[in-house]
């Protein structure tokens, strides 16, 4: 797949939401943990050799799963879509099945071959990163917007997006969310999302 | 890790988790915008008609609507969208800044399609969405009488004093909508020699944070044994 690498590199040089030197291990079998400068910018996680200005690589943070990994780290992994036909809770031999969260209910499974591991210095740092990564997706932001919009509308009877002239945009409507997210966004606490 | 071939030249192509990208492109959540556009390959090459799908801050293009994998993606962060004078009707461009910056020459198939795409693409950035979310959160906090300082998706952090390699800061892009006020940057971390001026223009703030990253890198390097 082609992509605009130059612009992505430029993005990696921008001010980050979070940056730290962490120990990082790739998904390949037998891969060794290495010190990397890890930088969170919008919905990408860039990683650099600690003495280089140009990034080694980037991870897109959409539709990924961030999990705690004992003792003091976390992992980022991709969700694999269910291969048709899918039944909730179907078991694929050799793969780890996760019976939690709305995606698992739809038959999504975590791909162990696409899991990146990070070691933190402290438990506190680990929690900070996990929180930040959980929220570092366009999809999460969209949910937040719809949630706040709904809350404000309930309180005031007015649509707060009207002042920006964007109330009609399709991307900010409830229907823009996948079905499994709609109830969470307008019914309950935002924290209950995933 | 899967290698994804970038368009740029130079030493070592950057790795990108291509499968994540492809999955995000083709998953069955509603898309933000989709349709045929004509994309010019280069200055003197012909246009190709491709199926474009906008999702979040990423513009994917496929051979056609039924394609399983995208041909490519344009990450839209930091771009501007403008109408252009061109031989083709309904032409517009997605332009990036910087030296030798890329410019994507595109053309829609009708006036309505052109307007729809320009509108959709110019507000597609993550930065913009985050601005709006922060604004709404502030409004809600004010209404609830908590008088929150606009703390948004990032939970409050205490400065880290343990000398361990962590820096946290945020910066705001200039206001994007008709009413969005520029928000001051918020930072929490240990040992900074000085603070950025709160009301500095964005370019200055950007440069200040860039210096900070370099300073941090210097600190980290200082703590490592040289090869």
From TrEMBL, chain A:
What InterPro entries would the database entry show? Boi1/Boi2-like, PH-like_dom_sf, PH_domain
The protein's matches in CDD domains, at most eight in alphabetical order, are given as:
PH_PLEKHJ1 (cd13258)
Boundaries of each PH domain copy? 15-138
Biological process (GO), any one? endosome organization
Question: Please, which domain of life does this record's source organism belong to?
Answer: Eukaryota
Alphabetical GO CC annotations of the entry are:
cytosol; early endosome; recycling endosome; trans-Golgi network
Query: What is the name of this protein?
Result: Pleckstrin homology domain-containing family J member 1
Write the gene name: Plekhj1
UniProtKB/TrEMBL annotation, chain B:
Pfam families to which the protein is assigned, alphabetical: PH (PF00169)
State which residue ranges cross the membrane.
none
Which UniProt keywords are listed? Answer: Cytoplasmic vesicle, Endosome, Golgi apparatus, Phosphoprotein
Write out the ranges of the annotated region (Disordered).
173-203
User: What GO terms in the biological process aspect are recorded for it?
Assistant: endosome organization; receptor recycling; retrograde transport, endosome to Golgi
A Gene Ontology term for the protein's cellular component:
trans-Golgi network
SMART domains in the record: PH (SM00233)
Q: What does this protein do?
A: Plays a role in endocytic trafficking. Required for receptor recycling from endosomes, both to the trans-Golgi network and the plasma membrane.
What does the record note on quaternary structure?
Answer: Forms homodimers and heterodimers with PHETA. Interacts with OCRL and INPP5B.
Q: What is the official name of this protein in its record?
A: Sesquipedalian
Species the sequence originates in: Heterocephalus glaber
């Amino acid at each position: 797949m082609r992509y605009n690498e130059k612009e992505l590199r430029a993005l990696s040089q921008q001010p980050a939401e979070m940056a730290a030197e962490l120990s990082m291990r790739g998904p390949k079998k037998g891969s060794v943990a290495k010190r990397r400068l890890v930088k969170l910018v919008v919905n990408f996680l860039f990683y650099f050799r600690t003495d280089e200005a140009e990034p080694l690589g980037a991870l897109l943070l959409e539709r990924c799963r961030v999990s705690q990994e004992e003792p003091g780290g976390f992992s980022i992994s991709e969700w694999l879509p269910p291969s048709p036909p899918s039944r909730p809770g179907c078991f694929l031999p050799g793969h780890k099945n996760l019976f939690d969260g709305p995606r698992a209910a739809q038959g999504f499974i975590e791909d162990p071959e696409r899991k990146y591991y990070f070691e933190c210095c402290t438990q506190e740092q680990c929690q900070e990163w996990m929180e930040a990564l959980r929220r570092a997706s366009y999809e999460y932001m969209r949910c937040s917007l719809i949630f706040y919009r709904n809350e404000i509308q309930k309180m005031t009877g007015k649509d707060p997006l009207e002042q920006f002239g964007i109330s009609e945009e399709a991307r900010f409507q409830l229907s823009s969310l996948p079905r499994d997210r709609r109830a969470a966004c307008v019914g309950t606490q935002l924290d209950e999302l995933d | 890790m899967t290698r994804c071939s970038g368009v740029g030249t130079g030493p070592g192509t950057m790795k990108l988790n291509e499968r994540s990208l492809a999955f995000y492109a083709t998953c069955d959540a509603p898309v933000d915008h989709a349709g045929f556009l004509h994309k010019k390959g280069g200055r003197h090459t012909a246009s190709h008609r491709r199926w474009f799908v906008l999702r979040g801050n990423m513009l994917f293009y496929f051979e056609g609507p039924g394609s399983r994998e995208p041909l490519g993606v344009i990450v839209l962060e930091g771009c501007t969208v403008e109408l252009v004078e061109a031989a083709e009707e309904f032409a517009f461009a997605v332009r990036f800044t910087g030296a030798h910056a890329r410019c994507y020459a595109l053309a829609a198939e009708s006036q309505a399609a052109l307007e729809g795409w320009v509108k959709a693409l110019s507000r597609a950035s993550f930065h913009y969405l985050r601005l709006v979310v922060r604004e709404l959160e502030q409004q809600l906090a004010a209404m609830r009488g908590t008088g929150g300082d606009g703390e948004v998706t990032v939970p409050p952090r205490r400065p880290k004093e343990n000398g361990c390699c962590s820096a946290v800061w945020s910066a705001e892009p200039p206001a994007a909508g008709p009413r969005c006020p520029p928000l001051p940057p918020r930072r929490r971390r240990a040992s900074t020699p000085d603070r950025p001026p709160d009301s500095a223009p964005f370019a200055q703030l950007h440069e200040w944070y860039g210096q900070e990253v370099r300073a941090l890198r210097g600190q980290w390097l200082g703590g490592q044994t040289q090869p």
